[in-house]
Amino acid sequence: MGEFRRLRRALAMAGSVIMLALGGVLVAEPAQACACGGAVSAEGEALTVDREVAALAWDGSTEDIVMQLDMITDADDAAVIIPTPSEPEVQLAETSFFDELAEMAAPRVEDTFTWWPQWEDIGPADGAGAAEPTGGVEVLDTVPLGPLEASVLSATDADGLTDWLREHEYVMSDPLADALTPYITEGWYFVAIRMVAEEGTLNGEVQPVHLSFPASSLIYPMRISAAAEVTQHVSTYVLADGQVRHSDPTGTSEPGELRYAGPVDESLQTSPTWDQLAAAGDYLTVIDHVFDDPAEQITSDFTFASAPDAADYQQVVQVTRMREIAGLTAGPVLLVLGLAAVVVAVLVGRRLLPAGDGAARLGPSAGPVGARPEQHYSAPR
Questions:
Q1: Most Cβ neighbours (<10 Å): which of 1, 92, 119, 348?
Q2: Phi, psi (5° rounding) for residue 115?
């Protein structure tokens, strides 16, 4: 009975070891996570546009820019100013359009397998007509866009544009006025997009806007972003006949990261915005930029040239997946089961050993070594 109690105690201890190890296996793992200096708001309200995503297309005569901004603000009323080289048409775009672009450019996932957990990871729209010029600014069109309102402007000087914005209760900083001056000098137009939150603030992503205008080449207005005071994140999705590369001083001196270059996936083209784009091509090039010091790094607008010799590219992400047994990580399970089997084998082996000093028995009547056994004879009768 004593040996049985010792065996039961050892098995209980082995079970505790198993549960402790499996408890470690069962610990939940945590889930895996604008470049536009032309944002203005009312005086005293904080507003930062730190990320912008733009899709660009040019068919040789017409350029399309579909833009989505990401704001950090406590304001419920703000505006964004976007320069264009010619008078644009403005409309809303579908949010799903950028979801489809992002899916097309998503990294290719390659699985690798491990037997052990990664312990470091536990733990709409008709214009309202043109207005009379005021203070060097002419309002060419006003377009209601649901939660947004777009005003197409021409301006003869930055002071006039500043005054126009102030009349609409927006304050333009001196750096922004300086960044707009070259566009004014070159005769560009401006789209002032007013955004009013239906409830709360404008914090987060803003509804995408689609601008379409005559253009002699593909160009994206980046000089205005030199007025930004925080790090700028810019992603451009360029639709063309083939892969493109930067041909401007900013993109050349501050090369971004190529995220994707390859044919457009037509099966993902479900958003109505695709039908409104210029017939630019069926090839997608995605380039990401980060400007830590916009005033120094951004010196020109983005322009692009064909890169016919460049190969298709897609990022690859290695995903480590664990081998499992009954839903648990295989390595620790096998280790614990192996240790338990060893413990049981040792205890069972001890149970089979004789009691006492362990001296071997030679038989039921064995005598001293070398002794002759007694012999009994019966006398013949």
A1: 92
A2: -90, -5
What is d(CA 83, CA 151) in angstroms, rounded to the nearest whole number?
Answer: 12
DSSP for 42-76?
Answer: STT--EEEEEEEEEEEE-SSEEEEEEEEEEEES-S
* Euclidean distance between CA atoms 335 and 264, whole angstroms: 48
> What angle (nearest 5°) sits at the alpha carbon of residue 350, between those of residues 349 and 354?
110
- End-to-end, the C-alpha distance of the chain in Å comes to 55
Listed in sequence order, the residues at least 6 apart from 213 whose beta carbon sits closer than 8 Å to its beta carbon are 62, 63, 84, 85, 86, 87, 88, 89, 189
Tokens of 139: 């309002």
Q: What are phi and psi of 357, to 5 degrees?
A: -85, 5
* Alpha helix segments (H runs only) across the chain: 2-25, 95-104, 158-167, 174-185, 249-253, 273-276, 294-297, 330-352
Which residues partner with 49 through β-bridges? 71
- Amino acid 118 reads Q
Q: What is the pLDDT of residues 213-253, one digit of tens each?
A: 999 999 999 998 888 878 888 999 999 999 999 999 999 99
Looking at the whole model, is its pTM more than 0.85? no
Q: Which two tokens stand for residue 280?
A: 């630019």
**Average pLDDT of the chain to the nearest whole number:** 76
Q: Which two tokens stand for residue 316?
A: 């690859």
What does the block give as tokens for 95? 């949010």
Structural domains of the chain, with CATH: 2-28+328-349 (no CATH), 39-314 (2.60.250)
Span 274-289, average pLDDT = 88
Name the burial class of residue 309, with classes exposed (0-12), middle (13-18) and buried (19+) by CB atoms within 10 angstroms of its CB. Answer: exposed
pLDDT for 322-374, tens place per residue?
A: 666 666 666 676 777 777 777 777 777 777 766 555 444 445 555 555 555 55
Show the tokens assigned to 345: 């084998």
Residue 372 has which token pair? 């002759």
